[in-house]
Amino acid sequence: MDRRAALAFGGALLAYPSFVVAQAKAEPRWRIGHLSTARLTSSGDCASGGGSGFGDAMKGLGYVVNRDYVSVHRCADGRRERLPDQARLLVDAKVDLIVGWGNDPIAAAQRATDRIPIVMVFGPDPVALGWARSFARPGGNLTGMTWEMEVGATFGNKFLDLIRETFPSARRIGFIEQPNPLLENTYRPKYVEVARSLGLEVHYPIIKNAAAIEAVFRQLRETGTDVLIIADDLLLQANTKTMMELVAKEQFPAIIWGGGNIFARSPGALLYYGANTDDQPRRAAILVDKILKGAKPGDLPIERPVKFDLVVDLRVARTLSLKIPQSVLLRATKVIE
User: pLDDT, tens digit, for every residue of 135-154?
Assistant: First the structure.
């Protein structure tokens, strides 16, 4: 070994302890858990854990992934019954915080822990479900965003107003969604009540599995359904092609309830309406930042949607020989010609 090599080797040995310390200091401080119903990829990873909006917002707040925090994703691969186990895995992984993406993941996280902070994204009404004392001061370990728009009004109420405006002669509404006790016990009674005040009847056909979809569509047509609402849930996501083909076959004016970006993967509906799917992940990152800096989730107000998307597909309107009111077109965030 020549002199320079020996000096280099000795220098490396001398530097080794400080190098180890530096590496230890470089370990990310935070572990942020994400719980969703996302599908698994071929490699066994979650297909999404909240999209790029959350990560971009964290970066904008000064956080660098794998330097300041690591993301721990757990997803149900489209199977709601797997969520409790996935939530417990996050608790066992000792994450510092859980971001729940949607009604069922949030419910699973809430049941799994009353200690780890939970940030809701696209969540149900936590006050009606007993998860929070109030929107202004939730208490406990949960905060975040919900579909609730304002005191005394829900996202669904505004949605019904849009239906009445778009289809003034409509009387019977069919609402297709995956059976969900969270919605059946909170939103549905209010939704039916408001619909009745607007002269609308809302019917919820029961779809227990994919094999029943075609029969339900036929039943809706035979019972005189004027407008069809389809929730953007696991039922639609797993059966998009079948359901949208039936929408076209039965000539239903269909509205997808969930978010304006859905039209790209579920084409064929007349309208798409919902809270902006980019805004809530960004706002979730702001709440995560506050919690990581010491704020208690129970002291952070639960936020309501502030941005909504309304997409109108005029191609479908022409196929159905429908004229969309100008007032609706002026409110649209996107019109497909």
Answer: 999 999 999 998 765 544 55
Same domain, 116 and 218: no
> Both 87 and 140 in a single domain?
yes
- Residues 147, 6: Cα–Cα separation, whole Å: 67
Q: How distant is the alpha carbon of residue 45 from its chain centre? A: 19
Q: Average pLDDT, stretch 201-216?
A: 87
Kindly state the tokens that stand for 95: 């994450």
- 150-159, pLDDT tens digit by residue? 544 555 567 7
Do 140 and 219 belong to one domain? Answer: no
Q: Do 161 and 186 belong together in one domain?
A: yes
For β-strands 201-203 and 227-231, DSSP reports them as unpaired
Range of the domain at 205: 155-276+308-336
Query: Taking the CA of residue 228 as centre, how many other CA atoms within 13 Å lie in the half-sphere pointing to its CB?
Result: 27
> Degrees (nearest 5) of the Cα angle 148, 131, 150?
15
In-domain check, residue 233: yes
Instruction: Kindly state whether residue 99 falls inside one of the protein's structural domains.
Output: yes
pTM attached to this predicted model: 0.83
Whether residues 164 and 61 fall in one domain: no
- Let me know if residue 34 belongs to a domain: yes
| Residue 147 and residue 200 in contact, taking contact as beta carbons nearer than 8 Å | no
Residue pair 143/298 in contact (Cβ under 8 Å)? The answer is: yes
Q: Please count the structural domains in the chain.
A: 2
Task: Assign 3-class secondary structure to the chain.
Answer: CCHHHHHHHHHHHHHHHHHHHHHHHCCCCEEEEEEECCCECCCCCECCCCHHHHHHHHHHCCCCECCCEEEEEEECCCCHHHHHHHHHHHHHCCCCEEEEECHHHHHHHHHHCCCCCEEEEEECCCCCCCCCCCCCCCCCCEEEEECCCECCECHHHHHHHHHHHHCCCCCEEEEECCCCHHHHCCHHHHHHHHHHHCCCEEECCCCCCHHHHHHHHHHHHHCCCCEEEEECCHHHHHCHHHHHHHHHHHCCCEEEECCHHHHHCCCCCCEEEEECCCHHHHHHHHHHHHHHCCCCHHHCCCECCCCEEEEEEHHHHHHCCCCCCHHHHHHCCEEEC
